[in-house]
Amino acid sequence: MEGVGGDGAATVAPLAKWRNDFSRVFQYYLDRSTPHPVQRWLGTLAAALIYMLRVYYVQGFYIVSYGLGIYILNLLIGFLSPKVDPEVEVLDGASLPTKGSDEFKPFIRRLPEFKFWYAITKAFCVAFLMTFFSVFDVPVFWPILLCYWFVLFVLTMKRQIMHMIKYKYVPFSIGKQRYKGKKTGASSSSSIRD
Length: 194
Description:
6 helices
Protein backbone atom coordinates (compact mmCIF):
# COMPACT_ATOMS: atom_id res chain seq x y z
CA MET A 1 0.00 0.00 0.00
CA GLU A 2 2.87 2.35 0.63
CA GLY A 3 4.01 1.97 -2.97
CA VAL A 4 0.74 3.34 -4.35
CA GLY A 5 1.09 6.61 -2.43
CA GLY A 6 4.74 6.86 -3.38
CA ASP A 7 4.01 6.38 -7.10
CA GLY A 8 1.32 9.07 -7.03
CA ALA A 9 3.70 11.55 -5.43
CA ALA A 10 6.44 10.61 -7.87
CA THR A 11 4.09 11.25 -10.80
CA VAL A 12 2.91 14.62 -9.45
CA ALA A 13 6.40 15.93 -8.66
CA PRO A 14 7.68 16.03 -12.28
CA LEU A 15 4.42 17.59 -13.44
CA ALA A 16 4.62 20.28 -10.75
CA LYS A 17 8.28 20.89 -11.60
CA TRP A 18 7.48 21.22 -15.31
CA ARG A 19 4.64 23.62 -14.54
CA ASN A 20 6.85 25.71 -12.28
CA ASP A 21 9.64 25.81 -14.89
CA PHE A 22 7.20 26.75 -17.64
CA SER A 23 5.71 29.48 -15.46
CA ARG A 24 9.14 30.97 -14.79
CA VAL A 25 10.19 30.91 -18.45
CA PHE A 26 6.86 32.43 -19.50
CA GLN A 27 7.17 35.20 -16.89
CA TYR A 28 10.78 35.83 -18.00
CA TYR A 29 9.69 36.46 -21.59
CA LEU A 30 6.72 38.55 -20.47
CA ASP A 31 9.07 40.72 -18.41
CA ARG A 32 11.44 41.08 -21.34
CA SER A 33 8.59 42.19 -23.62
CA THR A 34 7.49 45.00 -21.29
CA PRO A 35 9.70 47.79 -22.74
CA HIS A 36 8.72 46.92 -26.35
CA PRO A 37 5.09 48.06 -26.77
CA VAL A 38 5.16 48.38 -30.57
CA GLN A 39 6.43 44.84 -31.05
CA ARG A 40 3.93 43.50 -28.50
CA TRP A 41 0.99 45.17 -30.25
CA LEU A 42 2.21 43.98 -33.65
CA GLY A 43 2.22 40.43 -32.27
CA THR A 44 -1.32 40.91 -30.99
CA LEU A 45 -2.36 42.30 -34.37
CA ALA A 46 -0.91 39.16 -35.99
CA ALA A 47 -2.88 36.97 -33.56
CA ALA A 48 -6.05 38.95 -34.35
CA LEU A 49 -5.50 38.54 -38.10
CA ILE A 50 -4.94 34.80 -37.70
CA TYR A 51 -8.16 34.57 -35.68
CA MET A 52 -10.12 36.56 -38.27
CA LEU A 53 -8.78 34.40 -41.09
CA ARG A 54 -9.78 31.28 -39.15
CA VAL A 55 -13.33 32.57 -38.61
CA TYR A 56 -13.61 33.62 -42.26
CA TYR A 57 -12.25 30.28 -43.49
CA VAL A 58 -14.57 28.22 -41.25
CA GLN A 59 -17.58 30.54 -41.81
CA GLY A 60 -18.73 30.15 -38.24
CA PHE A 61 -18.05 30.84 -34.57
CA TYR A 62 -19.84 34.19 -34.69
CA ILE A 63 -20.95 33.89 -31.07
CA VAL A 64 -17.30 33.46 -30.05
CA SER A 65 -16.40 36.56 -32.07
CA TYR A 66 -19.26 38.52 -30.51
CA GLY A 67 -18.17 37.51 -27.01
CA LEU A 68 -14.59 38.47 -27.90
CA GLY A 69 -15.79 41.88 -29.13
CA ILE A 70 -17.77 42.53 -25.93
CA TYR A 71 -14.76 41.50 -23.82
CA ILE A 72 -12.42 43.81 -25.76
CA LEU A 73 -14.94 46.66 -25.42
CA ASN A 74 -14.99 46.09 -21.66
CA LEU A 75 -11.16 46.14 -21.56
CA LEU A 76 -11.12 49.33 -23.63
CA ILE A 77 -13.40 51.08 -21.14
CA GLY A 78 -11.04 50.08 -18.33
CA PHE A 79 -8.08 51.34 -20.35
CA LEU A 80 -9.71 54.72 -21.00
CA SER A 81 -11.01 55.23 -17.46
CA PRO A 82 -9.11 56.83 -14.58
CA LYS A 83 -8.11 54.67 -11.65
CA VAL A 84 -10.08 56.89 -9.30
CA ASP A 85 -13.42 57.69 -10.92
CA PRO A 86 -14.53 61.10 -9.61
CA GLU A 87 -18.15 60.25 -10.30
CA VAL A 88 -18.29 57.05 -8.26
CA GLU A 89 -15.66 57.11 -5.54
CA VAL A 90 -15.27 59.51 -2.67
CA LEU A 91 -12.60 62.06 -3.43
CA ASP A 92 -9.68 61.46 -1.10
CA GLY A 93 -7.11 63.76 -2.62
CA ALA A 94 -6.14 61.42 -5.47
CA SER A 95 -8.60 62.83 -7.97
CA LEU A 96 -8.33 64.44 -11.37
CA PRO A 97 -8.04 68.23 -11.40
CA THR A 98 -11.31 69.88 -12.39
CA LYS A 99 -10.24 73.54 -12.41
CA GLY A 100 -7.28 75.29 -13.95
CA SER A 101 -6.08 76.30 -10.50
CA ASP A 102 -6.02 72.68 -9.23
CA GLU A 103 -2.71 70.92 -8.86
CA PHE A 104 -1.68 68.78 -11.83
CA LYS A 105 -2.12 65.08 -11.20
CA PRO A 106 -1.09 62.61 -13.89
CA PHE A 107 -3.69 60.37 -15.47
CA ILE A 108 -3.49 56.89 -13.97
CA ARG A 109 -5.46 54.26 -15.85
CA ARG A 110 -7.76 51.77 -14.20
CA LEU A 111 -6.28 49.13 -16.53
CA PRO A 112 -2.59 49.73 -17.37
CA GLU A 113 -1.38 49.34 -20.95
CA PHE A 114 0.57 46.13 -20.30
CA LYS A 115 -2.38 44.40 -18.62
CA PHE A 116 -4.64 45.67 -21.41
CA TRP A 117 -2.32 44.18 -24.03
CA TYR A 118 -1.92 40.91 -22.15
CA ALA A 119 -5.68 40.46 -21.66
CA ILE A 120 -6.43 41.15 -25.34
CA THR A 121 -3.70 38.79 -26.51
CA LYS A 122 -4.96 36.04 -24.20
CA ALA A 123 -8.51 36.65 -25.40
CA PHE A 124 -7.55 36.22 -29.06
CA CYS A 125 -5.60 33.04 -28.26
CA VAL A 126 -8.49 31.53 -26.29
CA ALA A 127 -11.00 32.50 -28.98
CA PHE A 128 -8.72 30.93 -31.61
CA LEU A 129 -8.57 27.69 -29.62
CA MET A 130 -12.37 27.73 -29.24
CA THR A 131 -12.73 27.66 -33.04
CA PHE A 132 -11.43 24.08 -33.03
CA PHE A 133 -14.40 22.79 -30.98
CA SER A 134 -17.73 22.54 -32.78
CA VAL A 135 -19.70 22.94 -29.55
CA PHE A 136 -18.92 26.69 -29.68
CA ASP A 137 -20.19 27.06 -33.24
CA VAL A 138 -23.74 28.13 -32.43
CA PRO A 139 -25.73 29.01 -35.57
CA VAL A 140 -26.76 32.66 -35.47
CA PHE A 141 -27.56 35.38 -37.97
CA TRP A 142 -24.26 37.27 -37.71
CA PRO A 143 -25.35 40.61 -39.27
CA ILE A 144 -27.70 41.19 -36.31
CA LEU A 145 -24.85 40.51 -33.86
CA LEU A 146 -22.55 42.85 -35.78
CA CYS A 147 -25.15 45.67 -35.82
CA TYR A 148 -25.86 45.18 -32.14
CA TRP A 149 -22.14 45.29 -31.33
CA PHE A 150 -21.69 48.54 -33.30
CA VAL A 151 -24.64 50.15 -31.50
CA LEU A 152 -23.22 49.02 -28.16
CA PHE A 153 -19.77 50.35 -29.12
CA VAL A 154 -21.11 53.77 -30.17
CA LEU A 155 -23.26 54.19 -27.06
CA THR A 156 -20.47 53.08 -24.74
CA MET A 157 -17.87 55.32 -26.37
CA LYS A 158 -20.28 58.26 -26.32
CA ARG A 159 -20.77 57.79 -22.59
CA GLN A 160 -17.01 57.48 -22.04
CA ILE A 161 -16.24 60.61 -24.10
CA MET A 162 -18.89 62.58 -22.22
CA HIS A 163 -17.26 61.44 -18.98
CA MET A 164 -13.87 62.62 -20.28
CA ILE A 165 -15.30 66.02 -21.20
CA LYS A 166 -17.16 66.41 -17.91
CA TYR A 167 -14.10 65.67 -15.75
CA LYS A 168 -11.58 67.19 -18.18
CA TYR A 169 -9.11 64.37 -18.67
CA VAL A 170 -7.42 62.93 -21.73
CA PRO A 171 -6.23 59.32 -21.38
CA PHE A 172 -3.56 59.64 -24.05
CA SER A 173 -0.20 61.34 -23.97
CA ILE A 174 1.48 61.75 -27.32
CA GLY A 175 5.23 61.66 -26.97
CA LYS A 176 7.34 63.03 -24.19
CA GLN A 177 6.50 66.56 -23.12
CA ARG A 178 9.46 68.92 -23.27
CA TYR A 179 10.05 72.14 -21.45
CA LYS A 180 10.57 74.95 -23.97
CA GLY A 181 11.70 77.56 -21.48
CA LYS A 182 11.15 81.30 -21.58
CA LYS A 183 12.06 83.35 -24.59
CA THR A 184 15.17 85.39 -24.01
CA GLY A 185 15.01 89.17 -23.90
CA ALA A 186 17.65 89.48 -26.63
CA SER A 187 15.55 87.73 -29.25
CA SER A 188 12.51 89.89 -28.51
CA SER A 189 14.54 93.10 -28.47
CA SER A 190 16.19 92.31 -31.82
CA SER A 191 12.78 91.89 -33.45
CA ILE A 192 11.73 95.33 -32.14
CA ARG A 193 14.77 97.01 -33.74
CA ASP A 194 14.02 95.61 -37.21
